[in-house]
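pinging the channel bc i need a second pair of eyes. not urgent but kinda urgent?? the chain im working w is below, pasted from the shared doc
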Amino acid sequence: MNRTDRLYGLVEELRAVSPRPRSARRLAERFEVSVRTIERDLAALQQSGLPIWAEPGRTGGYVIDASATLGPAAFTVDEALAVLIGLGSLRHSPFRQPAQTAARKLLAVMPDRDAAHARALASRVHFLEDEDDTVVPAEFAAALRADRVVRLRYRDASGADSTRDVEPLGSIGKDRQWYLIAWCRLRDGVRAFRGDRMLSVEVTDERPPRRTLRSEDLAIPSGRLRSVIDD
C-alpha cells in the first residue's frame, strides 16, 4: 500500500470506530507499517486540517471527528507544482494566509517522494517583486466572504480619508493590485476599493440586500474580466 492509500485508509479506519480511540500500535498492525510511520502519517493528516486528536492513558489512542473526510490528493508532480506557484503568487494578496495553509496541506497529503520533488521544483520558481510592494489587509478576504455590510475606512487616490458602509459584491485582481467591488452607501453606487488603501475593515452584523452585479456597473476602461474558475 502506498502512502496516499494508507492516509485515506487511516481516516476511514478512525471514522469507523469513532468516537472510540484507536492506538498507534493497532493501526500499525492493521497497515503493516511501524508505529513511527503511523505517527508521522497522523501528524501529516493533522497538519492538513483534519480534526484528529490523541487521548492519553492506557486505553487511549487517536480519535477523529466522524464527519471528517480527506479530500482528493491524487495530484501529479506537475499539477502540485502549478498549484504551489499559484498559491505563492498570493503572498501580498488578502488571501495570503489561507494560501500558505493550503500549500502545507497539499504537500502533507502527497506521497513523500512526490511532495519532496514538487517542493524542490517550486524552489526554482521565483517572483520578481517591487521592494515597496504593499500588503493588502487580511480582513479584505473576510469582507468578501462574510455576506455582511462592511464598515470601511479608506484613503482615496488624492489622500483623503473617509468612512463608508459598503456591501461587498466581488473582487478583481489586476497588475498585482486587489480591488473590493462593493455597493457604496455613501456614493449610492458600485465602487472599487483598492486593498492597499484600506485603513481598517470591520464586518458588521447587518445582512445587505441581494444585489446583482453587472459588468457595465464596473465601468472598466480596458481589459477583459475572467473568472478564477474557467468553465
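so The CA atoms of residues 101 and 182 lie 28 Å apart. and The chain has a mean pLDDT of 85. — does that match what u expected or am i reading it wrong
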